[in-house]
Amino acid sequence: MAGTALRGRLTWQLAELVEAVAETPRVKTIVFDVPGWPGHRAGQHVDVRLTAEDGYQAERSYSIASAPVGTRVALTVQRLEDGEVSPYLTDELRPGDKIELRGPIGGYFVWEPSQGGPLMLVAGGSGIVPLMAMIRTPAAAGDDTETRLLYSSRSQDDVIYRDELERLSGNGLTVVHALTESQPPGWTSYARRVDAEMLAEVSPSPAERPRFYACGPTPFVEAVAESLVRLGHDTQAIKTERFGATGR
Amino acid sequence: MPPEAAKPVVSRGWRGRRSTDVDPARIPPGQYVTRDFPVLSAGPTPHTSLELWDFSIIVELDSPRRWTWEEFRALPSEEITRDIHCVNKWSKLDTVWRGVSVDTLLEGIETAADFVIQYSDGGYTTNLPLEDVTGGKAWVVFSYDGQPLAPEHGGPARMLVPQHYFWKSAKWVRGLLLQSADEPGFWETNGYHNYGEPWQEQRYAGD
Q1: For A109, which DSSP code?
Q2: Distance from B144 to chain A by nearest Cα, in Å?
Q3: Using one digit for the tens of pLDDT, what is the confidence trace for A90-135?
Q4: B135 to chain A, minimum CA–CA distance in Å?
Q5: Hey, is the C-beta of A14 within 8 angstroms of any chain B C-beta?
Q6: Cβ separation B16–A55 shorter than 8 A
Q7: Is there a contact between B45 and A226 if contact means CB atoms under 8 Å apart?
Q8: Residue B44 and residue A235: Cβ atoms within 8 Å?
Q9: What is the pTM of this model?
């Protein structure tokens, strides 16, 4: 259990960029070294704070993409065209640059090997990021826990972590892609949005009591969670993280 | 823990984008203004039919007070325009709601309780001192922007406690539990602050 009562304040810490990797045309992974990083659990996020010359500041939250190992913390950031923070992180930040972050944050949308499985992960777009931290935890991709990932992207070029997911597949990890807008020639997997039928085909049955983690844009997660409830899965076993608005 | 950076480190080359059409005095530290209405929920959106919906005030050692949807909607309601602040950094200004004041719901109830727990369909809970939901500080709202409250935003009814981060305004609320002891709720036991006051930036445990 994520008891936090006795934890001290999460302080802002200096994080130095050590590596930046382009994942897709709009998405970059930025890896920081954070001396004294206390460790994290897969699924948690950090707050990032930027400061301008005149003292003006902005804060945003980003999911941690890396497995909880050492003092390296990887964030995978999608550049929002009109964003105040994300274009700086994806386009301007150079190795050696320092930003401030604090974390890890969040005690619910997390998975630890001791929680067991089977794990059913459902990602829409950059919603893959916190789920990738779970997949990168050796126990999740190994033989100990059965893990399935259903991952919806617009096209193959929009698939984040494509090569790594392919490499990690096998053993205990099954990856199923759905490409909603365009598919490469010879595509044999799903070519539509995630729906109840797809979830029924890919997920373990309710009798296997899978643990669900769904992350993506709000309408995506709403649809996934509702379908899972209708399919008879335990609502308490469905953990969600939504981003973005409903348009209202 | 390593020592906190003594003063903020300037982010090389970053200028930021200050809102020009917003009074900065309305924006708590670390927040930015959005015109969207983001959704944050820990699980599936519950759908309770209005025939099965009710709202209860549960007081120690007394029988609960309970309203059906029809009875609840017959209570005097008011329009409330407030700024709201989510711990996830967005603030939304001048949001317009309609709902029943908690003062109305508590009218005539004698209690020595110092704390209140909001509880919801789906099992969500959040805690506050009772004095933070009385005296015109909190409502059970059923409409947003002139429309019935959408399920993903907490409909049919949610709490509105705008002086706190918005997780202290429970979606899908079904009742208030008045008690003498403070009891941390869902996010309060998952790393978030027990009181959640935006101007003090009380986001996380220990802030």
Answers
A1: S
A2: 9
A3: 999 999 999 999 999 999 999 988 888 899 999 999 999 999 999 9
A4: 30
A5: yes
A6: no
A7: yes
A8: yes
A9: 0.92
CATH architecture of A13-105: Beta Barrel (2.40)
Q: What does the pLDDT average to over B125-136?
A: 98
Mean pLDDT computed over B80-90: 96
Q: What pLDDT, in 10s, does the model give residues B150-203? A: 999 999 999 999 999 999 999 999 999 999 999 999 999 999 999 999 999 999
CB atoms within 10 A of CB A157: 13
User: In chain B, which residues have their Cβ closer than 8 Å to the Cβ of A5?
Assistant: 184, 205
Q: Which residue of B lies nearest to A221 if distances are taken between CA atoms? A: B44
b/e map of B23-47 (b: 16 or more CB within 10 Å)?
A: eeeebeebbbeeeebbbbbbbbbbe
Q: Which two tokens stand for residue A191?
A: 């070519």
The CATH classification of domain A113-243, taken from the options 3.40.190.10, 3.40.50.80, 3.40.1830.10, 3.90.1150.10 = 3.40.50.80
**Closest-approach residue (CA) in chain B for A238:** B43
User: Which are the contacts of A101, defined by CB distance < 8 A and separation ≥ 6?
Assistant: A12, A13, A15, A32, A34, A46, A47, A48, A49, A73
Give chain B's domains with CATH numbers. Answer: 28-37+47-200 (3.90.420.10)
| Encoded tokens for B162 | 């705008």
